[in-house]
Each structure stands twice: as C-alpha cells, then as structure tokens.
Amino acid sequence: MSVPGAPTAKEKKYDRQLRLWGAGGQEALETAHILLINATAAGSETLKNLVLPGVGQFTIVDQAVVTDEDLGTNFFLDDSSIGLSRAQKACELLCELNPEVQGHFIKDTIENIVKSSPEKLKDFTTVIATGDVCTDTLLSLDAILYPLGIPIFVVKCVGFTMSCRLALAEHPIVETHPASTVDLRLFNPFPELSALVDEKTAFINDQEKMTTHEHGHLPYVLILLQTLNEWKSTHDNQPPSNYSQKNEFKSLLRSKMWNADEENFEEAIAAVLPHFNPPSIPSETRAIFQDEKCTSLTKESTQFWVIARAIKEFSEKNDGLLPLPGALPDMKAESKDYIRLQNIYKSKARADLAAVVGIVRDLLKGLGRDGGEIAESEVETFCKHAGYAKLIRGRSLNEEYEKSPKAQVISNELSDPTSLIHYYLGLRAYEAFISEQSNAQRTAPGAEDSTVDADTEKLKKHVTELLDKLSITYSSELLEGTEKAIGEIVRAGGGELHNISSLTGGVVAQEVIKVITKQYIPMNNTVLFDGISSRTTVYQL
Amino acid sequence: MATTTVLTTESPDRWKYLNNILTRRGPYSDETFEPGDEPKAFLADLKIFGAGGLGCEILKNLALSGFKDIHVIDMDTIDISNLNRQFLFREADVGKSKAEVAAAFVMKRVRGVKITPFNCAIQDKDDEYYKQFKIVVCGLDSVEARRWINATLVNLVGEETLIPLIDGGTEGFKGQARVILPTISCCYECTLDMLTPRAAVPLCTLASIPRQPAHCIEWASVIQWPKEKGDLKIDMDDPEHVTWLYTKALGRAKEFNIPGVTYAMTQGVIKNIIPAIASTNAIVAASCCSEALKIATTASPYLDNYMMYTGDESVYTYTFQHEKKDDCPVCGNLPQALTVDPESTLEELMEKLQERPETTLKKPSLRTSAKSLYLQAPKQLEEQTRPNLEKQLKELMEEGDELSISDPGMPFNLRFIISFSS
Ligand SMILES: [Zn+2]
C-alpha cells in the first residue's frame, strides 16, 4: 500500500530525530566523515551516538591492541577482541549498529599521521581526539585543522571528570530553533494588514452592526491593531511605551468586551506584554551585520555572508525592519478569517523574500559570480530566522595554550572551591604529565597504588607551572579546590568509568551533531563535567 | 567468605579502573566509605532493577558498572523507530520483546553478568517482587508508570526496606536525572506540578472552526473516527488506521484551505510523539547509572537530588535540591487544599481535575469520608452513583470535608480538604 506522503523506510527509522533537525540536518549528517582518535570508551560511545542517527562515515585511528582493561569500560569490544587491533575491533562492532554507515580504521598513532601524512586530515568533516594525546600533537592538529575550518573536539575523560574543548574558528547558525519566530508587526503594520483592520473592525464598538458571534471571533491581532489606532489618536501618535501605559492599554481592551467570556479579547490582553516592543534588530543579528565578512564581501564569501549582507541592505531600505518571518500563532477566530489573516502575513513574507533574493542575485553578479548559485530556499530559511541567527567565533588551541591564554577567566574562578575550573587545571596537568613521557611506555598518574603520592606531587607541580606561565598569582599552597581535583584525577589512575564515558559520548555527539547540521547552538568552547556533584560549566578559554 | 568471587572470575585486569575508584578514597568520599574489597563485593551481590525507554543504555551501563544481578521489565516490542537510539536492537529484531533481546545482547557482550528479563508491564509485579531489589533505575516514558513505581517504592518503606529510585527522562535535546530516597527526599509525585499540562483544543474549534493542521488531524481522530468506525479502537501503530486519519485530515484541511497537514504530523499528533535522540538518552541514562554506582558503593557522594540537562543552546545543567512536599499524596501526610465552586456539578469538578497534571487520571472514583460520590466500578455501584454527576457540589459535600480520589492506575489515593469559593 502506497499513500502519497507516507514515510519511507528511512524516514520511519529516523522519525524521532527528523522531528528535531529535519531532512536538511539529516543530509548534512549523512555526508559527514568523522575522525576518531583512539577507540577509548568515551570515543566509542561518541561514535555510537553518531552511527545510530546515520552519520555518513567514520574512521578510527588507534595503534593500541585490546586489553582486559578495555573490556571493563568499552562496550564496543568483546572477549574475542583481546590482543587484536582496537581500531579494527571497535570499528566492526560499531558498524553493526547501522548498516547505512561506513566505518574505517587506521592502525597507527595520530602522532605519526600528523608528522608523515597531514594531508589525510583534510578529508574529514570533524575530528574528535580522545585518550592520551600529548600536547605537541594536539597543537599540531590544531595548526593544521583550525585554519581549514575543520572542527576539532578534544575530549578528556578520567574517573568522574570530563572535559570537551571545541576549536572552531567561525560557526554561523541560521536555524537556531528559537521557541517562536512570530513578528506581528503591531507597531509597523504594512498596508495590507491595516486595510484588513479597517475592514474587519469598523463596527467593533457597534452592537447594532456586528453580531455577538462576530465580535467574539475577531482575531486578536486585529483587535490590538484597531485599539492601537484609537490609543495613538489620543497619545501623540505614540504606542504605549512603559509598564503603566501598557496596563492602561489593557484596561482599554477590557472596556471593549461585550461580555466576560470573549476569549479573543483575553488573548489580546495576554499578547500586550510579549508583543508590544518597538522594532529593533537583535544584538546577535547586528553583530553579524557589522562583521567585516558582511561589510566587505569577496569572491570567496560563503553563502551565509552573502545572504546576511543582502538582509542587511534590505533592512537599511526598510526603516530598519528585518524581512517578515510570516508565522502567525493560533488564535480564536473563524477559519476563513484566520486563514485570510495568515495569508496576508505570508504574502508580505514572500514579498520581502523576493526583495532579498533580488539583492542576493545582484550581490553575486557584482562579485563576478553566478547570480543563481544560492538557492531561493536557503534565502527563505535565512529570512525566517533573520532575527535569530547567531555567529560563534571560536578560539584555537594554540591561542588557548600559547598565544593569548585567558588567564583572567581562570583566576576569577580560582578562589571558589566548587568551581569546575579546578578540574580544568587538573586535566591540563594530567596532559602535561603524559606529554613528558615517550609514547612507548606511557603511564597515567596514579596508575599503580605505589605511585599515587609521587604522581599527585607531580600534577601539583604541573598546575603551579601552568599558573606561573599564565602569571596567575596564588598562595604558596595550591587552593583547596585544585588539590581535590588533582586527588580525584590521580585516584582514577588514568582509567575511564563507563558511566562517565557514556555521558561524555552523549555530550560530545550532541555537540558534533549541532556543528555538522549547523542547527541549534553548540557550546563555545570548553565544557567541564563533574560526575560527583553532577554539574557542568562552560568556559571560553 | 565468597564475597569477591564474581569480580575476579574474569581476568583481574578487567575491572582495574573501576577498582581504582573502589579501592582508593577520593577527596570527596564520605567518611563511611571503606575502600577495598567490600564495596566491590557488595556491588556484585546487589540486585538492581531497570526499565523503560532508556533500557538499552541502562543495561549496558549497569553491566559495565560491575552490577552482576540485573532485572529488566519492558512490555514493548521493538519498533523500527526505536533503532535510531536503542542500540541493542537491529532491523531483524523488529516485533520481538525489547526486554528479552536487550538482556540476551548485554549478557553475550559483558561476561559474568546475569540479566533477567520480563516481557510485561511494571504494574504486573507485586510488592514481594520489588522488595528483592536494593536499587531501582527507571527511564520510563509514561507519567502513569512513573507515578506507579514511585508510589510502590514509597509504600515499601519499612524498618528493613528503603529502595532508592533513580529516575531519568528525555525530550529532544533536554533531559533530567534524579535520585529519590522514598519518604526521605522529594518523590516523583511531589514534583508533578512541574509538568506542563497539554493544552486541549476546545471541541467547538475542532468541530466547526479549525485553523491549524493539528485541528484537522484531531477532528479526524476525535470526531470523525468514532462517527464512521463506531466502537473500533484506533491502533496508532496500524498504518491503515494512520493513513485513514491522514486522508480524512487532508480532506478537512482542503475544505478550509489550511496548509501543512502531513503524514508525519498526523502520526505526531495522534501518538503525541516526543522527539528522541541517542545522545540525550546516553547522557541521562549514564547520569542515572553513575548515581546507582555511587549509592551502591558509597565511593563518592550521590546526587541530591535533581539534575536538568539542556543541550539545544550550548550545554547547560541545573543541579538542585527539589523540596519534599508535606501535602504530597504519596510521601507526605497532609491532604492538599482544593477550592471548588459549590454551584458547579460533580461532573464539572471531574472535568476540572483533568486539567491539572497531578489529577489527570484514567478512571477516577470520588468519595468523601461520609459517602461515595462517584464510583467507576463495579457496574452496579457506577449506576447507583451516576446520578450524583449532575448534582451540585453543595448538595454532596460541606466545606472542610475530605475528598478522596482513587484510580485503578494509582496505588494510592489523592486527598483534598474542600473549601467553597464565594
Ligand atoms: Zn512525594
């Protein structure tokens, strides 16, 4: 049985996620290729959460062979894997999750790849580094990928603690999924809307010429606009501006009710506070308009910047108004009146869109590019979200570590013993500890009971060195919070706890999906999680 | 003592990392925590229970947390739309019991764990059954099932018994995990008012003035189906039924020029589909199981008592202590206050109760201490009490009366002290 519009097998399988990111997001996911460095438990769990929703391809780089310890934390290895390549076995068991996903593996270290064949890295959509990767390698990866705009996630997961750092230079998001995109244009009605108000509300105060039924079914938008006209005629042509005027306006609305249960008037009264705002361009949108990439387009400008520039020019020609999104909330009304009102908003949105499309075409031609290279549907999506678009400017790992560390962010938090910045310092010390050792016989702090005390002292020393390097002053003794964070990290002996790895895999995969689909808003740029107090904090480092 | 046997049947290295946490005290560990073999042994002997839509994640996590004796209950069979997140199931498993397939998979993958599956509703098991567990972890998607297990565990509290309930739930990019120590900390029922009630569309809108695609779909299922199909119940999973509703809704929408009715939306509206993704399920289930491990071993302090996760805008968690309510119908001992209009009828009161999440019940029966106002069953008593539905409340009760509401879905009564609005 085939019904037009009935879902395909794939739509059925992915139904619950398509309701979040739609066909466009799914398409982006299915063409992505993820590189995972090291098949740790956290890394494998991250891939699990990307393979299930149907990421296109993944590749695991890992030189390790599977040990018994791996089996205690990683679900995507089994008894028969012991002694074999960890990259290969994890790849095989992860591929079982979704036949549509292609998995690959490379039995090598990332150090070797960075040194001998860095060009291979350019093929990936996103890179996720997990496990013990030393600082030099991380910074080399960053130096290769960051300028290319390939996002790198650096994930550390030790005991009850995890951190995830995203290095991504520029990330524009159009589909941020705001709760609502409604703009009723109450303070600047366009001619078609004003005409409808005049037509429908001429007898709003006349019980002879309007029936009770008609009065009780006037869409609240029209009631508000009619009452505003009335208000403005006695208030210097100004709408209510402050709280007390808005309350006065509500009383005026109430006085127009013919009986106590006219829901449409109740809806109008409830809409005063949320919708009575003078039109303005939100700060995030203004920042996009003022960005140099918007003000000076080049032949290489991406689609985002060309459309942003077109919308900027549109708003300059239209009294600072953004294109109308065109959405209308439900309201008490007769079907035909509601649909008519809805069509008036939609027609205006279409007219605004046509104007923006025209500007886009002209801009492209002016740049010597094909005027048709940007699809109208892309412009439409942007127009609908113009007031909700967001631009994230990230920082590279090299900036964080070497060029311009955010010492202030760290020092501000140091005296708070509950701050998660202590785990950041502890994990940086952990990284310094393993980076000091040669690849072959690397051991983690606290790997053996006998080394716990000595390793604790070493981590403390690494933290003080880091603080000195950042010129952060601290009392001679390290602060209590940092001591405790180091204590927890050494206690774990470099080991992962499956639950924390699994949670990490969820958090990282969710961020990867947001970045790949360019929908929703990813964190910028470091999230820390403490599994003891069950808290997260995001820092910009 | 044969205490450490289970953890050491595998290679001693297998649980090395978990053992690091169990054999070493951490800076935040409670004073009562005694690192060493004891927490390991306790973990291995402890019986734990898991259930719900997060079941796959929960079973994996518990097995890799060192729990050895796990029970799982799930009445559902595997559907194609589960495969994007319930990672123990494959296309060939569609139609099979979730509990059985999941249990078999995890036992095969993680050596030494015993998982006992039951293909039934959690309500099919009695107090004796639940008493055997030390911890219950639930990722149930129905409010009714969560209220039931919560009330059951609160009722079980006694001198020897206190079973922590760890509850998790997700919706899209958001989720929450919480720890409930029955009668000690805030319970599921205490926080029911946090749920936002689903705003019902007035029947007259559906019947005569539809404006939205959803109005057309609801018209098809609420009005047109019973009219044309009589007593036949809608099966939301039967594609023929869904197609019928979709076609009807489409016709309705065309008649009123309403754009936007789609098949997917039809399914979404009639099944009240909530978006669900692998990553959020992983976060919430892992958080729940991490708390189970901490409670079982005391290796680190546990969550007291609520964590909310929001992932659609950056990464945000809100961890806080939810307050226990003295007038909670399950774990409190005081009745709640309820103001009613004395002129309204009993039937109107019952409709009003449906609008509040804590009183949304399937088949409520109402009593005062003096008399039965309306009983849903048995049939004879239902017929006897039915005339009361038409009566005004002032004829049936007085101010200060205690109104008690019971429902076959709930193992407890809701108690209210009545006052009349003036
Ligand atoms: Zn309670």
Labels describing this entry:
A: 541 residues; alpha/beta; Rossmann fold; eight-stranded mixed sheet; two-stranded antiparallel sheet; 9% strand; elongated; B: 422 residues; Structural Genomics Hypothetical 15.5 Kd Protein In mrcA-pckA Intergenic Region, Chain A; 3 domains; five-stranded mixed sheet; 15 helices; 13 strands; disordered N terminus; binds zinc ion; Ubiquitin-activating_enz (chain A); ThiF_NAD_FAD-bd (chain A)
Query: Poorly predicted ranges of chain A (pLDDT <50, ≥5 residues)?
Result: none
CATH topology of the largest domain in chain A: Rossmann fold
Most extensive contact? A-B, 87 and 84 residues
What CATH calls the topology of the largest domain in chain B is: Rossmann fold
Average pLDDT, all residues of chain A: 96
Q: State the fourth-level CATH superfamily of the largest domain in chain B.
A: NAD(P)-binding Rossmann-like Domain
What is the spatial order of strands in the main beta sheet of chain A?
Answer: 3-2-1-4-5-6-9-10
Q: What best-fitting shape of chain B do the alpha-carbon axes yield?
A: globular
- Strands of chain A, count: 10
CATH architecture of the largest domain in chain A: 3-Layer(aba) Sandwich
Largest sheet of chain B: 8 strands, mixed
N- to C-terminal distance of chain B: 70 Å
CATH superfamily of the largest domain in chain A: NAD(P)-binding Rossmann-like Domain
**Protein structure class of chain B:** alpha/beta
Pfam family, one (chain B): E2_bind
EC number (chain B): 6.2.1.64
Pathway (chain B): Protein modification; protein neddylation
Coiled coil (chain B): 379-406
Could you please describe the fold and organization of this structure?
- Chain B: This is NEDD8-activating enzyme E1 catalytic subunit.
- Chain B: Its EC number is 6.2.1.64.
- Chain B: InterPro entries: E2-binding, ThiF/MoeB/HesA, ThiF_NAD_FAD-bd, Ub_act_enz_dom_a_sf, Uba3_N, Ubiquitin-activating_enz.
- Chain B: GO terms for molecular function: ATP binding; NEDD8 activating enzyme activity.
- The complex is a heterodimer of chains A (541) and B (422).
- With 541 residues, chain A is α/β, with parallel strands linked by helices.
- Chain A is built from 23 helices and 10 strands.
- Chain A has helices at residues 9-13, 15-30, 41-51, 68-71, 86-95, 110-116, 135-145, 191-201, 212-216, 220-233, 243-255, 263-275, 283-290, 292-295, 303-317, 335-366, 376-384, 397-403, 407-413, 421-435, 452-469, 480-491, 498-517; strands at residues 33-37, 57-61, 102-106, 126-129, 152-158, 161-167, 170-173, 390-393, 526-530, 535-539.
- In chain A, strands 3-2-1-4-5-6-9-10 form an 8-stranded mixed sheet, with helices on both faces. Chain A has a two-stranded antiparallel sheet with strand order 7-8.
- In chain A, helix 20 packs across helix 21 and helix 21 (452-469) packs across helix 22 (480-491).
- The two termini of chain A are 56 Å apart.
- The model of chain A has no long low-confidence stretch (mean pLDDT 96).
- Chain B is an alpha/beta fold.
- Chain B folds into 3 domains: 16-195 and 275-320, 3-Layer(aba) Sandwich (Rossmann fold), CATH 3.40.50.720; 203-270, Ubiquitin activating enzymes (Uba3). Chain: B, domain 2 (Arc Repressor Mutant, subunit A, Orthogonal Bundle); 336-420, Structural Genomics Hypothetical 15.5 Kd Protein In mrcA-pckA Intergenic Region, Chain A.
- Chain B is built from 15 helices and 13 strands.
- Chain B has helices spanning 5-9, 16-23, 37-45, 55-63, 98-109, 127-131, 143-155, 203-207, 213-229, 239-255, 263-271, 278-297, 346-354, 379-385, 393-396; strands at residues 47-52, 69-73, 114-118, 135-139, 165-171, 174-180, 306-310, 316-320, 336-340, 365-368, 372-374, 402-406, 414-420.
- In chain B, the strands form 2 sheets. An 8-stranded mixed sheet of chain B has the order 3-2-1-4-5-6-7-8, sandwiched between helices. In chain B, strands 9-13-12-10-11 form a 5-stranded mixed sheet.
- The termini of chain B are far apart.
- The interface between A and B is large, with 87 and 84 residues.
- The site of zinc ion has 8 residues of chain B, from loops.
